[in-house]
Write a structure and sequence with these properties.
transmembrane helix, Ig-like domain-containing protein, membrane, Immunoglobulin-like, mainly beta, Ig_sub2
Amino acid sequence: MILLNISYGQFSRSQSVDIDEPHTYTPPRHYFQTSSFDEADQDDDDAAKNPLDRGPYFDISASRNVTALVGNTAYLNCRVRNLGNRTVSWIRHRDLHLLTVGKATYTSDQRYQSVHNPQLDDWSLKVLYPQQRDSGVYECQISTTPPVGYSMMLSVVEPITTIIGGPDLYIDTGSTVNLTCIVRHLPEPPPLIQWTHNEQEINYDSPRGGVSVITEKGDITTSYLLIQRARSTDSGKYTCLPSTANPMTVHVHVLNGEHPAAIQGSKGLGSSAVVVTFALLLLVLLATVRAFPVR
């Protein structure tokens, strides 16, 4: 890992520090000792008894992996104990770009901000309106000599909503319509999934009856819209609307003895008529040219 030492606004390369391995003493649970010291001058037993005397260290109780939704503010939380007069910075690994130093933003991209909570010793990197290109490794770094850091992975995801079998479904009259809406890539299940029919919210207690919805929430959320004893009035556009993801639409065709190919053929009738008209005009033009040749 390449670590950056910040001095008067300039960068200088420093030695690599493997933050995944503790130093020679055993830190308390959830804490990680990262400050630099001369091991020859220290006794391991004393270090184990007095870890707070060894300089700043990271609290690693929180997860290193953060998932955020496209457009929703993301927070990378870095908890530093015993910071003293040291400074906390945030660095983006893919280009070694310095983002923040203390509470100040050191990049022209003002979407990156430092948020300090002194009660919890937190130095969070706030990312406004994150996009998928912002995914990657970010490092919280303490200005020790050499500097030490704690890396975190930000994954910015865009939820995907799909309806199985779409965009057109053909159902026989009297059959059960089963519309299955699947929502993926959400950090947490959507609080609500709404279904509409021809832009109108579906009333599951309507006199029509036989209409119900079942939603299973998890890493992948699935919502089933069930319509029993399908009739012609059940045809139309159905839309699945997760509260925290994009909507998806499917067109349901309830058949009364028709063949799906016939319906698809009628849909293409307009475009076919245009082709036929163009062909007729072309024939008339050719006939005119032949009748009156250019001399």
